Fold:
Amino acid sequence: MTEDQFRRIINEEVTRAVGEEVTKALERELPKVLEKQLPAALEKQLPLVLEKQLPLVLGREMPKILHKELAVFYGQVTHYVDKNIKDFRTEVKRDHDRIYTLLDGIAGRLTSDEQERAALGHEQKRHKGWIKQLAHATETKLRPDIS
Structure:
């Protein structure tokens, strides 16, 4: 409790009980009394209060304080990790999509190459057939394939 708080409490109580005349007298005299007596009283009592009450207060309040601080820290760490995981997932998804696009392109080219080879093979068979028909019609002897 601060000195100002102490003064205000005393003033409120005295005002209620005694009235304005006593209050005015107290307002004049209280600062003088407090100035002389309060520091001496506090100086004597403070070490005793601290010695007795501090371990009790710390014993009760420290776990609450630590729990609150750890909760805040955990929240910050969780937020940081979640953000980084989200960023990482976005990056992996982007890379994943790029890879699938490349694979689709390669698969498309392979499919078209296979179709083209099949068409060329079929065309070559037709050409062979026509050449044989021409050779037969012109009575030309064809050389056998060397390969």
Remarks:
- The chain is about 90% helix and 0% strand.
- Helices lie at 3-17, 20-138.
